[in-house]
Design goal:
Largest sheet: 7 strands, mixed
Oligomer: single chain
Strand content: 15-25%
Distance between the termini: 65 Å
Number of strands: 11
Helix content: 40-55%
Order of helices and strands: EHHHHEHHEEHEHEHEEHHEHEE
């Protein structure tokens, strides 16, 4: 039997010595303590506050063995979300594994603007005395965090989620079943976003949401060298990080109904050129929205 505090101190010390965790960031004592506490809480099926309150308690060796196995994964740089197979996004617990990008807080802005656009379009339909659901497409869906988060706020619409990775779609399906329950309003299609977008029942879309890979190729290789294990496919935006925006603009314009909206996440410093790409594809009314750090993070374009 070992005391929780002894296991905790040893693990914190080991994580602080990891060259992987220090590679792309300043990895502090507070970071290591949080990682260790979350892993221990996960293994012990308790909360962090309860764990801290009972550090002198003893734990069985099989529990210690499992915790140490997970500590070693973190020591090699593996993202904590993959270790725990869960990441909170927009207040929801999403299942994640190494087949999908870990949902980032910045992407919540895409969800917020998506909800806003859907509500505006819904009111327009009501003013026209029409009764129909909106047709919504989520491109590069990954874990499904964008479309599923929006669906919890905007039900009674149809969502089509596409990704080139079948494994990613399986994760999205799992999250939809877990967080939405009924899947009748969801379609999941394996599809290359560089090709024309598939239409659901031949109907064009009212809203297209996208979080494309937008990190330049050389930066991706350096980013992943810290062992985080996120899929390169979901990060690599080609030589300049922009390769997917040209196809996104072209195929979105062709797939949207008149007055339809394209909302896309963008990388740092990409706002001007992505807006230009969208306008050259025929879109008007392009608007950029800032994230909490003040960086332009989402572009909305209207057909």
């Amino acid at each position: 039997m070992s005391e929780i505090n002894d296991v905790r101190k040893k693990a914190i010390s080991e994580l602080l010595s990891s060259p992987y965790l220090k590679k792309n960031r300043c990895y502090t004592l507070n970071d290591a303590s949080l990682d260790v506490d979350l892993i221990l809480s996960h293994v012990l099926r308790t909360t962090r506050s309860h764990l801290i309150a009972f550090l002198d308690d003893e734990i069985d060796e099989d529990v210690v063995f499992e915790a140490e196995r997970l500590f070693k994964l973190r020591l090699m740089g593996l993202s904590l979300a993959y270790i725990m197979e869960e990441k909170e996004f927009y207040g929801l617990p999403f299942y994640v594994n190494e087949d999908v990008l870990i949902p980032k807080a910045d992407t919540e802005l895409l969800v917020e603007k998506g909800v806003q656009s859907i509500n505006e379009l819904t009111r327009e339909i009501a003013r026209k005395n029409e009764k129909r659901e909106l047709n919504i497409l989520d491109v590069f869906t990954g874990s499904g965090c964008v479309a599923i988060s929006i669906a919890t706020m905007c039900s009674s619409h149809h969502y089509t989620l596409i990704d080139i990775s079948e494994k990613a779609l399986n994760v999205a399906k799992r999250n939809a079943k877990k967080l939405i329950g009924k899947l009748g309003d969801f379609s999941f299609l394996q599809h290359d976003a560089l090709k024309s977008f598939p239409l659901t029942n031949g109907k064009k879309y009212d809203v297209i949401l996208a979080n494309p890979p937008y990190i330049p190729h050389d930066e991706v290789l350096n980013l992943l060298s810290d062992g985080r294990a996120e899929p390169q496919l979901a990060l690599d935006g080609g030589e300049d990080g922009l390769c997917f925006y040209y196809a996104l603009a072209k195929h979105s314009f062709a797939s949207l109904s008149e007055g339809g909206r394209l909302l896309s996440e963008i990388g740092d410093g990409q706002a001007m050129i992505v807006t230009s790409i969208f306008k050259n594809a025929g879109f008007g009314g392009c608007t950029c929205y800032n994230d909490l750090s003040g960086e332009k993070r989402v572009v909305e374009a209207i057909k």
